[in-house]
Design brief:
alpha+beta, Alpha-Beta Plaits, 2 domains
Length: about 160
Amino acid sequence: MTEAQGTSAEIARVHLAHATDGRARLRLTGRISPEHLAGLCERLAHLPGVTRCLGRPNTGSLIVEARLKKAELTAMLKESGIVEFVPHGAMPPMGLALRFGLLRTDQEIASRSGGQFSLHTAFATILLIGAAVQLARGRIAGPALTLLFNALSLLETADPKER
């Protein structure tokens, strides 16, 4: 038996993302090669009642379609010896996840602009354009000044090399 064949016989650790009558989405707990994912799908597709199994390498998930009710499908998958269901980890607090997402967006903007642009300056630019639009409409006192002051405030807190 070759190493690739031995790898395809391993039990994959998965989370049950969701299941309905006739369909289950399994999310892999770790990264695997597209070849291993295809082998896993092939093994799952041969289970009784399964009509199709799709592997999504980009998301690390498997979609199993079957002519079974939800309870029968999940029980059959658990007993198959092909996948092992593990409990979901605790979800991070929403505020922390949002801050992390904004930080990653800021880093991506900075890397694509060579450090000359950031999330601060991107939002400030949008606010300045909004102020110009409001000014063109003749709405100086309310919206235009508010947008302008917010843009200037963002620029003031931005990194000096981004101004």
